[in-house]
Amino acid sequence: IAELTMPAVTYINFPTYSMGYRAISMLVRALENVNSEPEQVLIPPKLVIRNSTSKPR
What pTM was estimated for this model as a whole? Predict the structure, then answer.
């Protein structure tokens, strides 16, 4: 949608494929090892700067 607006809107892109892949991997590991420790994973989003954003004046 951000590409269809005028001006093109700046947005945050969340890596949904990586997030899903990691979640399933963690789920399978937890099912295989019931005593596994909880795990925190950070998958950084990407800021996509478009024409709706400019440098400060």
Answer: 0.66
